[in-house]
Amino acid sequence: MARPRVLSGVQPTGALHLGNWLGAIRNWVDLQKSHETFFCVVDLHAITVPHDPAQLAEDTLKTAALYLACGIDPELSTVFVQSQVGAHSELCWLLNCVTPLNWLERMIQFKEKAVKQGDQVSVGLLDYPVLMAADILLYGADLVPVGEDQKQHLELARDIAQQRINSRFGKKDETGEPIPVLTVPEPLILKAGARVMSLTDGNSKMSKSDPNEGSRINLLDPPELIVKKVKRAKTDPTMGLEFGNQERPEAENLLSLYALLSGKGMEAAAQECASMGWGTFKPLLAEVAVEALRPLQQRYGELRADPGHLNDVLRQGQARASAVAQATLERVRHALGFLPGPTAT
Ligand code: TRP
């Protein structure tokens, strides 16, 4: 039996932080052995808001190198850059033409991002979820690991695949069974406890877009900076760290970071820190964060010191991804009535 397929991606904007690692990439690493995995750097998504061309390529390489440094293994997974596989843009156009405008206008993330930009909002920002649907559908992904904030986008990808492509353009076999053009993906809900919150507000998610640098620990932050950020992290006046107290979101978040980064697990961490004051706990947390990131930063440094190798990995990823993506694209082109495309065999 073929292993179920998984696809996910991260935008190369801003630095990857502990939330991206503990909440997403670390789980991808586990999936590599049991699933057929595709991980892309979604650089086309990065230009849906104003971007700096001098930064884009560097940020793309940085993100790809961080995937590898976190343990994504190019022998087990297909690691690639979205814009280097032309099928993403092409399928996006085909899907655009069957997706109702009002499905996009009601996307929560679009509405939130759009208010910040006023009359400068690009068509691309509105179209963001259709491009994401193309990313997923091109690889016939069965499962997509997503956080809470991306669930609505995944739902959209499912609706486009099922209601707009399969049911309108799919054929039936001799027994009358529909032959799907596209695989309808399911969300893969990740383990609980991996939702990392901001260091300055235990009620909001650790985010790349938070203007306060102190709210997050980036994977490439040097040890001194990590110590400083932990020292300044928001606390409360209560002694002792604990889980499950709704009034103490900061204690919950920092203790859970300690449990994850030390590898001790929730129970042992909760016991160890039950009567600890913040002044004792914080240096401990800073130390496990520094130690957990040390090997990752070391591998990252090695990868960036050998650009030829990274380039080879991405070229190989591009070739493997293109082969899968082109086959899907050709099926959709055919279903929609186009002449065969340039790579049709
Ligand atoms: N929108 C996703 C995010 O911001 C990134 C993304 C783009 C993605 N294409 C994807 C995630 C396909 C999963 C699958 O997190």
Structure, described:
- The mean pLDDT is 95.
- 54% of the residues lie in helices and 8% in strands.
- It has 13 helices and 7 strands.
- By secondary structure, it is mainly alpha-helical.
- It has a 3-stranded parallel sheet.
Beta percentage is 5-15%
Q: Which ligands are bound?
A: tryptophan
The structure class reads mainly alpha
Uncertain ranges? none
The tally of strands reads 7
Shape: globular
Average of pLDDT: 95
Radius of gyration: 22 Å
Helical proportion, percent range:
40-55%
Biggest sheet record: 3 strands, parallel
Kindly report how far apart the N and C termini lie. 26 Å
Order of helices and strands: EHEHHEHHHHEHEEEHHHHH
Short note summarizing the structure:
With 345 residues, this protein is mainly alpha-helical. It has helices at 18-34, 43-46, 53-69, 87-96, 101-105, 108-117, 123-138, 151-169, 223-232, 249-262, 266-273, 278-304, 307-336, and strands spanning 5-10, 36-41, 77-81, 143-145, 171-172, 178-179, 186-188. The site of tryptophan (TRP) has 12 residues, from β1 and α7.
Key descriptive features of the protein:
single chain, 345 residues, mainly alpha, three-stranded parallel beta sheet, two-stranded parallel sheet, 13 helices, 7 strands, globular, binds tryptophan
What's the SSE blueprint?
Blueprint: E1 5-10, H1 18-34, E2 36-41, H2 43-46, H3 53-69, E3 77-81, H4 87-96, H5 101-105, H6 108-117, H7 123-138, E4 143-145, H8 151-169, E5 171-172, E6 178-179, E7 186-188, H9 223-232, H10 249-262, H11 266-273, H12 278-304, H13 307-336
Parallel strand pairs: 1-2, 2-3, 4-7
Antiparallel strand pairs: 5-6
Helix pairs in contact: 3-12, 4-7, 4-13, 7-8, 9-12, 10-11, 10-12
Bound molecules: tryptophan.
